[in-house]
Design brief:
Layout (H helix, E strand, L loop, with lengths): L11 H23 L4 H19 L12 H19 L1 H6 L9 H22 L2 H15 L5 H9 L8 H22 L2 H13 L5 H17 L2 H19 L3 H14 L9 H10 L3 H30 L12 H8 L4 H11 L4 H16 L3 H4 L4 H35 L1 H13 L3 H16 L4 H11 L1 H6 L4 H14 L8 H10 L3 H11 L1 H12 L9 H23 L8 H15 L3 H21 L12
């Protein structure tokens, strides 16, 4: 965006929309600084701004437009008015007796209007999957329970348990600030810092381009919190470079998809759903980050190891010398751009809230970028306004997703479906936890197909977490379990959105790319079972035990990667790989006796590998 925003060269609604986007960003920053108003007003304004901007900036096909039709202009205005209705009638809303006082005709009309227009806005931003899910749950409540339609509408529209519930509250307070932070740091050159830092750190190693993708996507994904957006940002550089260095297109796309997906579980920022988890658990965001740290490290250690073994097996070398950058040069030129991230972590560690930490991070970005000549050119009015506009635009899909997920959660709460579904899972599992976990995993992946992580996680919390808790799973582990599979649905066929996004850059066969992504992300499917049975992986317990468990799990996931890529000291046949795979599972399982068996088997396999390949000359890496 540039300052021509106020000239007559642009369509009137393009100017109005851009001013509203910037205003939306500034309003949330002001609220973060001055303190939030009444929750109904805060959430209502957030939903209202999101809905009117969705209708004024996207057409019926979901394509961005600067010239909305008059029907969309009217729909946007109506949607905004409907979302603000509770705010303008706050005394009436808060003083009436829920489910006792009858709804007024105006309540019914405005409530139905808001639900319909919210579903359509969500479809435009995110596709049909989430609106169809919401419609299915409402149909269940209307047709298969004794709940009155007026009660369902009241739950969705006039209580803080539906559209204006916890999901949209988190979107309006936590997510919007971190999204604005991510947009601002990206405009100040942090994206280039992440790329250069990753090249400097891993570019000289075997399979350097793929390892660069792992590091870059982990860093960038931790800030962006969106697997698909991450793929399209970092993948434009990493995927062509991986292909040029000799990796198959399917493998190159899979590395980027898996690394980008893992960014949502990597502290310090993680994905948007982590803020919802903190709200549901009633703990500080830093506590959630602590729970997620070791599982995230295991995920990336396994991915990094798989890339290394594949590079060794294929004889693929480092990043070309002309593209390599000394790490000292990177840190001297752009290293100061890490300071805003350090500020956020520092403020969280000091015990302040996540919104306050995000605000401090945002305030620090521009002064930090202005510190050095190498980044000072990013600090312009145009860049700052552009960052605010883009950040607010990115908030629209999150706000729509959270509000629409609120419909699902509201129906589940008012109809008792959560309890019914929990009892079904317990009965189907016959009180056996491992079967319940597998059922929850499958249900979580299915619920997450084609749906953003945040609403997928919210739905699973309502449906699956109660059953797991009843079977004895710790609440924190149960939430993180469903959180993982909400994320991993992005790389799980048949609707693997991150893989599809990577395929637009790699041009691989989708089946081959999906299988490669599942292999690379295999640890992600196993780690949730690990921390359910062994809370030490969530940093719970004494530190000696935590260190022992995480060490053996790290060895286990490295051996798992070796088995799946069929390479360690050299190539492995299918039988040797299968034996090493079994040994890796023994190391991952939290039982010392089984761990000893796994170590013995792994030691034997690796000794045999060493003997077999002692005199074998490995392929010469292609160091271009």
């Amino acid at each position: 965006m540039n300052l021509a925003i106020l000239t007559d060269k642009m369509p009137i609604f393009a100017r109005i929309s851009r001013l509203m986007l910037i205003g939306m960003a500034l309003w949330h920053l002001y609220v973060a600084f001055a303190g939030p108003p009444n929750p109904y007003i805060m959430r209502g304004v957030h939903v209202a701004l999101a809905l009117v901007l969705i209708y004024w900036t996207t057409d019926r096909r979901g394509v961005r437009t600067d010239t909305p039709g008059w029907i969309d202009v009217i729909l946007g205005a109506v949607a905004m008015s409907a979302a603000l209705y509770p705010s303008f009638n706050l005394n009436y809303i808060t003083q009436r007796f829920l489910y006792v006082d009858p709804l007024l005709p105006i309540d019914i009309v405005v409530g139905i209007t808001l639900v319909v227009l919210l579903l359509e806005a969500t479809r435009r931003m995110l596709g049909p999957m989430l609106p169809i899910t919401a419609i299915a749950f409402m149909a269940y409540g209307l047709m298969f329970t004794s709940t009155l339609p007026s009660v369902i509408l009241e739950q969705l529209f006039m209580t803080p348990e539906g559209i204006f519930g916890i999901p949209i509250a988190v979107s309006a307070t936590y997510m919007v600030l971190f999204i604005l932070f991510g947009s601002l740091v990206e405009k100040m050159g942090v994206g280039q810092l992440f790329m250069d830092f990753a090249v400097a750190l891993t570019g000289r190693q075997a399979g350097g381009p793929a390892k660069v993708a792992c590091v870059t996507s982990g860093l960038f994904g931790s800030v962006s919190g969106s697997a698909v957006a991450n793929v399209m940002t970092t993948g434009t550089f990493s995927i062509p470079l991986m292909k040029r260095m000799g990796f198959k297109p399917a493998f190159a796309g899979a590395v980027e998809a898996v690394a980008s997906t893992g960014g949502q579980i990597m502290p310090p920022v993680m994905g948007a759903a982590a803020f919802v988890m903190a709200e549901y658990l009633g703990v500080g965001y830093l506590t959630v980050a602590k729970y997620a740290l070791a599982p995230a490290i295991l995920f990336y250690v396994a991915l990094f190891a798989a890339v290394h073994f594949e590079a060794k097996r294929k004889g693929i070398g480092s990043v070309p010398k002309e593209d390599q950058i000394p790490i000292k040069e990177v840190l001297l030129e752009r290293g100061h751009l890490f300071i805003p991230l350090i500020v956020i972590v520092g403020v969280l560690v000091m015990g302040y809230s996540a919104p306050y930490a995000a605000l401090c991070g945002i305030i620090s970005v521009v002064p930090v970028a202005a510190m050095r000549k190498t980044t000072r050119h990013y600090v312009t009015v145009e860049n700052i306004l552009d960052a605010l506009e883009n950040g607010a635009r990115n908030v629209l899909s999150i706000a729509a997703a959270c509000a629409c997920a609120g419909i699902v959660v509201g129906v589940i709460d008012i109809t008792g479906l959560g309890l019914t579904f929990s009892n079904f899972v317990i009965e189907a599992a016959q009180d056996r936890l491992v079967i319940a976990l597998i059922l929850s995993m499958v249900a979580g992946i299915i619920l997450g197909m084609g749906m953003p992580t945040t609403p997928a996680y919210i739905v699973q919390v309502a449906l699956l977490v109660p059953a797991l808790v009843k079977l004895g799973v710790q609440v924190e582990a149960a939430h993180l379990f469903v959180f993982y599979f909400a994320i991993l649905s992005a790389i799980t066929p048949p609707v693997a959105m991150a893989v599809y996004a990577a395929n637009t850059l790699s041009h691989a066969k989708i089946v081959e790319a999906s299988w490669a992504a599942v292999k690379l992300g295999a640890t992600g499917f196993i780690v949730p079972f690990m921390f359910v049975y062994e809370p030490a992986i969530l940093m719970q317990g004494d530190w000696v035990h935590i260190a022992i468990v995480i060490t053996q799990a790290t060895i286990g996931v490295i051996l798992l990667a070796a088995a799946l890529q069929r390479y360690f000291f050299g190539r492995m046949d299918l039988l040797t790989s299968a034996v090493l795979f079994a040994a890796s599972l023994c190391l991952i399982y939290p039982d010392y006796r089984i761990t000893v068996v796994g170590l013995a088997i792994a030691g034997g396999v690796l000794a045999l590998q060493k003997v077999r390949h002692r005199d074998t000359v490995p392929p010469t890496p292609a160091n271009n």
